[in-house]
């Protein structure tokens, strides 16, 4: 069931249908302004594009001859390439919207505006501009909107809001103004010679109209808008060096259910460990200074912590699925330097559980660094727990990011209750 929203704009009714068509798009707005109809969609890829340092945004404005009641015939029986007007309209839509996306967003985003019907009284370019903004605002794509656009014409010294095609062509002023709640973000104008004061007055008038449109968009977003994806600062940098892999979108409402292996927890730790103590640099936009001075020197330690968290959740998940010879009931490292229970110094995670109805203790050692793990390191882990006061069986789990030494698996097969786990494939870290 689709929902329809309407408002009066410059003496004509603007209607937006949501969920009527293009339901697979991240956001879609079926726009009606008079008899002009434009389908605007906003789509984004699930993952960032690798190896780029820019935001891959594409804006398309598609004019079709059938929208004005014409069918290609004669020698050319197909639509031709985009017209100059279509290219310029795409640029006018792109220019105010691009800066409102997150600076480090690298997912491919396409804003497509297909003109389906044209009423000469309601210019389709304006409808496409509003449709692109609405489709993006109601989608899950991160966007610091809403924004709105208004066109102003002038005939005989009188302003005309959203003029007809004829008024736009023959008037003394062609002004397009894009605004957010706070300010004007784009002005494009062409005019005959007019006073400067008149131009400023037209800009302010368009900005006022934009505020009413933004209120209308807010109403739509409040009712049908999707939760926005969360863009964590330097997430793409962390992904590029292999700390985490984003498998699905992280959303505000379900941010603990949408990804595997602590991607959200890792981002939370990263935020509070590196960003919050240096919030002044983050707010000031000094991200390169923040990254090079405060993050890079401590990044290895952070990556080790992330790997430990991912290893723990991986073991718990396999335990729940019955893929381990034990079931984990509690995990932590609460026995470290505990005199009564002995010491587990050197272990990253100690878990309590059961195996075949008996109590079990699971000792886990995690190696994130890229090196081969020697047999001696595996044996030393067992020696550390021989004097520990505990009940039931003990299991020893070694989690490695990369690989084990060629002798380890052979030796481990002769020792009771040793489990070797390589998370390189399981967690897609490298």
Written description of the protein model:
The protein is α+β, with helices and mostly antiparallel strands. Helices cover 32% and strands 27% of the residues. It has helices at 84-97, 124-138, 165-170, 196-224, 235-240, 263-275, 279-283, 287-295, 299-320, 375-384, 408-412, 423-426, and strands at residues 3-9, 12-18, 27-33, 36-48, 57-62, 107-117, 148-155, 158-161, 173-179, 184-191, 327-332, 349-355, 358-367, 393-400, 418-422. Helix 1 packs parallel to helix 2 (124-138). The longest helix is centred in the middle third of the chain and has 29 residues, at 196-224. It starts with a strand and ends with a helix. Residues 240-264, 333-344 and 425-430 have low confidence and may be disordered.
What would you call the shape?
A: elongated
Q: Count of helices?
A: 12
Question: What percent of the residues sit in helical stretches (DSSP H or I)?
Answer: 25-40%
Show unreliable segments: 240-264, 333-344, 425-430
Radius of gyration using CA atoms only: 30 Å
Following the backbone from N to C, one meets helices and strands in this order, namely EEEEEHEHEEHEEHHHHHHEEEHEHEH
Distance between the termini: 44 Å
Short description:
This protein has helices spanning 84-97, 124-138, 165-170, 196-224, 235-240, 263-275, 279-283, 287-295, 299-320, 375-384, 408-412, 423-426; strands at residues 3-9, 12-18, 27-33, 36-48, 57-62, 107-117, 148-155, 158-161, 173-179, 184-191, 327-332, 349-355, 358-367, 393-400, 418-422. With 430 residues, it is of the alpha+beta class.
SSE arrangement:
Elements: E1 3-9, E2 12-18, E3 27-33, E4 36-48, E5 57-62, H1 84-97, E6 107-117, H2 124-138, E7 148-155, E8 158-161, H3 165-170, E9 173-179, E10 184-191, H4 196-224, H5 235-240, H6 263-275, H7 279-283, H8 287-295, H9 299-320, E11 327-332, E12 349-355, E13 358-367, H10 375-384, E14 393-400, H11 408-412, E15 418-422, H12 423-426
Parallel strand pairs: 5-6, 13-14, 14-15
Antiparallel strand pairs: 1-2, 2-3, 3-4, 4-6, 7-8, 7-9, 9-10, 11-12, 12-13
Helix pairs in contact: 1-2
């Amino acid at each position: 069931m689709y929902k329809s929203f309407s408002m009066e704009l410059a003496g004509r009714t603007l209607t937006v249908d949501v969920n009527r068509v293009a339901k697979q798009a991240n956001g879609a707005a079926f726009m009606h302004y008079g008899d002009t109809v434009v389908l605007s969609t906003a789509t984004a890829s699930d993952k960032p594009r690798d190896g780029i340092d820019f935001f891959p945004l594409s804006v398309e404005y598609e004019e079709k001859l059938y929208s004005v009641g014409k069918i290609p015939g004669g020698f050319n029986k197909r639509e031709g390439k985009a017209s100059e007007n279509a290219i310029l309209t795409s640029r006018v839509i792109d220019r105010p919207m691009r800066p409102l996306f997150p600076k480090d967003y690298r997912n491919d985003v396409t804003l497509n505006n297909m003109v389906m019907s044209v009423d000469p009284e309601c210019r389709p370019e304006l409808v496409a501009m509003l449709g692109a903004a609405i489709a993006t605002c109601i989608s899950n794509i991160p966007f610091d909107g809403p924004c709105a656009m208004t066109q102003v014409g002038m005939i005989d010294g009188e302003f005309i809001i959203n003029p007809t095609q004829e008024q736009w062509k023959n008037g003394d002023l062609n002004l397009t103004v894009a605004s957010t709640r706070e300010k004007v973000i784009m002005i494009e104008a062409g005019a005959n010679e007019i006073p400067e004061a008149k131009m400023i007055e037209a800009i302010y008038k368009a900005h006022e109209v934009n505020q009413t449109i933004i209120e209308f968009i807010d109403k739509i977003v409040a009712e049908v808008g999707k939760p926005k994806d969360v863009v964590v600062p330097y997430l793409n940098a962390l992904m590029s060096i292999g700390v985490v892999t984003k498998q699905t979108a992280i959303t505000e409402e379900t941010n603990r259910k949408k990804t595997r292996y602590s991607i959200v927890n890792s981002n939370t730790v990263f935020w509070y460990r590196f960003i919050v103590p240096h919030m002044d640099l983050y707010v000031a936009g000094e991200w390169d200074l923040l990254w090079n001075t405060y993050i890079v020197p401590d990044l290895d330690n952070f990556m080790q912590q992330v790997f430990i968290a991912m290893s723990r959740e991986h073991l718990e998940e396999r335990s729940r699925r019955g893929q381990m010879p034990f079931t984990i009931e509690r995990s932590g490292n609460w026995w470290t330097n505990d005199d009564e229970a002995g010491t587990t110094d050197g272990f990253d995670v100690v878990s309590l559980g059961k195996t075949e109805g008996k109590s079990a203790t699971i000792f886990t050692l995690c190696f994130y660094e890229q090196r081969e793990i020697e047999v001696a390191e595996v044996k030393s882990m067992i020696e550390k727990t021989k004097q520990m006061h505990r009940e039931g069986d003990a299991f020893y789990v070694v989690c490695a990011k990369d690989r084990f030494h060629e002798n380890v698996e052979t030796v481990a097969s002769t020792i009771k209750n040793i489990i070797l786990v390589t998370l390189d494939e399981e967690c897609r870290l490298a």
